[in-house]
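Exercise 3.2. Students should predict the tertiary structure of the chain below and write it as structure tokens, then compare their answer with the key that follows.

Predict this chain's 3D structure.
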Amino acid sequence: MRFRNIILLSLLIIATTARAQVIFDARIDTLILLIGEQRELTLDVTCGAQQKLKMPDYKPMQPLAQDVEIVELLGTDTTFLDEGHRMQVLQRYSITAWDSAFVLLPPFEVEVDGQQYKSNQLALKVLTVPVDTVHVDQFFPPKDIQNNPFSWDDWKPVMWFVGINQLLALILLWIYSRWRENKPLIRIIRRKVKLPPHQVAMTEIERIKADRKWAEEDSKEYYTQLTDTLRNYIKERYGFNATEMTSSEIIERLLQEQDEQALAELRQLFTTADLVKFAKWTTLINENDANLVSAIDFINQTKIEVDPNAPTEIVEVPEEVKQSQKRSFALKAVMWVIAVIAVAFVAYALYLSIDLIR
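Answer key:
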């Protein structure tokens, strides 16, 4: 048992040491290049995932050795190994050389947990561009412009952007027309059954009847509301504008539809109402109740029942002034956003077109 524990402890120490080991390697895709050519330099570092790694910070045009310099950083890739316990970092650079020579690049350095690690040393052979020294006077003219075959695939992005821009222009034009006419983008429509005149009048009379207290205190208001209800009912029932007529004019007009006896109670009601409203006539509670009953009887005798199968009437909900202002501001904001997007699409489509034409 003791021997097995010693073996397990030794394996644990070895695994921990292996995980903490730092491996640093540098390599170039080829060791031979012509003057001015570019090659890829890769720095490969493997260390513990929890260790703090600091890679070299090379800048473009920074020299590595005599006549050898960094062109650009091509990218950095990180891969985790051993179930996430170790990581491999690859940092790639593009390098070039400007003179023919055999160059030894100095070792590269990285820092892991504050400790410096050096890579292997690389050798680079730079060759000159071959020159025809025999026919020094022989020159070759420039080549003709090459006409590449037309491909719709190259122009697909441009056509997509043009199509989207046309769609945005149509949407912008439609929104602008709605804004000029002060109309919402989406009209709010509600379907409801229009109540017949006698039902509307009876509902209002029930409300007046329920408020008996204020009827006792203010007879003028009571008769004003009662006669207004009757005027609205007569207007809807008989089709003439009773709300703009006097009481006598209403009775004379109704005589064309009803006889004198049928309108006797209604005439008495209007007469009492005129006296209360204009002559400060004082009425009793039972007289008020009698006139209310007269109004109900007149409505019941003249009402026309509505066909239950009648089609519903479409009523558009009016917009409030405040809502109209908010809608106008929102439409302006939407128009500006669409206009900016459309201009961006046009600019990008022109950029792609110019690039393809070149």
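Discussion points: The two ends are 79 Å apart (CA to CA). The longest strand covers residues 68-81.
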